[in-house]
Structure formats: C-alpha cells, structure tokens
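Question: does this match?
>
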Amino acid sequence: MDVNLKFNKPEVDILIDRIRARELGLTVSDIASVVQSAFSGRRLAYFIMNGRQYQVISQVGLPDRQTPTDITKLFVRNNLGNAIALSEVVTLSTNANPPSLFHYNRYKSATISASLAEGKTVGDGVKAMQAISDKLLDDSFQTSLSGPSRDYAESSSNISFAFCAGVTDDLPDSAHSLKAFATRLSL
C-alpha cells in the first residue's frame, strides 16, 4: 500500500507571546523583521569595490544558524532602544508536514494505492476500501475512485442499468404474452 500524503518535512513554528512582547515594548513586526534579516539571506544593497559589484546580504554567520534554537539567541530592539532576547517572547514548536499538498476537484487530497492480494478481485478491494473509509472517515471527507477501481465501479453500475433497462423493455412483451395466454385459457 502507498499513500502520497507523507508527513515527512520537518518544520519549526515560532510562537510569539504577544502579551509579553507588548509588555516589553515589542511588536510582532519587530520580531518578524529580526528573524527575516537573520535567516532569509535577503539582498539589502550592492557595493562596488575594485571595479566589481557585490551584494550586501543580510544573514547571520553559518555557525549561528545551524539549529532551530539559534532563533532564540537573537536580540531585537524595543521602542525604548533596549535589546530584548527573543527567548523572552518566543517559543519554538517542532512538527512535520507534507512537502506538498495535492488537490482533486479543488479539495486537498491524498491518494491511497494498493495491489490486490492473491485471489482477490477489484470488487473485493473496492468493498474493503469502502468499509475502511466508512469506519475511519467522518462526513466531512469525500472519497472517489480512480484507475481500474473507477472503471470497475462504472462498469458495474452500467451493467446494472443495462440489466434493469432490459427487464423493463421486456415487460410490455411479457405482459402482452401473459394477456394472450390468459385469453386462450379463458376460451
């Protein structure tokens, strides 16, 4: 079995204590600006030396940006000009997210692919997956089939339709024959 939704991209969330930051004279914008300047590698300007043009890049040195906790070692100036350590107003939270989110019919989606067990049919697989989705997913989720599973479901519904249509088409002939038979019996 394979799923295209894998939570294997590590991330660090920076959670700002807004009340504490306000008490210390900081804004969220001040904090974001310091983190961006320290880690983004943003180009600030150019300078020319010996006839060559060089970029001025905003970024802390490599030894000071190796781990996520290096963010808490930064300082930011408050509205009074005092340097406040980010460790006083931020906490770090690690998690993992998918590297990319896939979409189907405008909704975020995950594709589950599986091979059939020996002796099982596509119909058995579709029924098993439907049972699993009924058990695990609530009404906010939608499922749909693709590939051979979708072909199977569509052909099954078409066969049922064709069978019902065939029976319905035969009913008038059957009724006429039955009426003729009943008429002969009454004579």
In short: Residues 148-186 form the longest helix (39 residues).
